Amino acid sequence: MRDLKTLQELVASITDWEAFNEITFKPFVPKLLDVALWQHAPQFYSEEQFAQINHFSKLHLGFGLRSREKNTRKRPISEMSKEEDMPENQTSRKKIKIKHPSPKLSIEFENRVNELNGGDITFLMQKKLYRSDLDTNKNRLSMPRNEIRCDFLTETEIAKLKEREGTSGKGKLVGVEVHVLDPCLREFTLLLKKWDMENTYTLNLSKHWNNVVSTNKFEENQELYIWTFRVDEKLYFLLNRV
User: pTM for this one?
Assistant: First the structure.
């Protein structure tokens, strides 16, 4: 740690070419210090000197350096040391960024949406079918809030999902009528309902969901891509097998 602090103070003291010249060897011979300084202050080296430093780094340290054009961000040496002191598996885990891009909608679905004069196509989620989703007594497909990627409901639909039958407000949920296109582009009319739970909620496609299941012979653990789109103000769902 003492050596690191000394190196940090040395780098901080270099403010111009004259100050840098005072600490370099003549003729120029690359050292470990030059490897660290290049990553922090590449402007003090010529391209020829960089080539020598890069060769030194590959030979003695086992890694090459970025060229001046690519080394635009000057990392503080304190950051470098923290990353280099970490175990290899931790540094790798820190650098990897896992992305989950939306799947591409098939041309058949795109054509069908165009035929309906639909728009606002949005990928909603990738849904795994559980036993409860195929239970004929439940007759619903659950879409948990934490698996839904985006907000897609209008203010009117959100309000409608809160409505219940009867004047007391304690009857069954009314739901929002929606249209569903299955993987073969067959159209079904279902109800979208919202079940509130503690700190979360689930959206359910209900009423005629059993018809969708039996027609498509859906099975447990099968996965579906689910999109939404609109025709005028009507809400549609697209289901396609993964």
Answer: 0.58
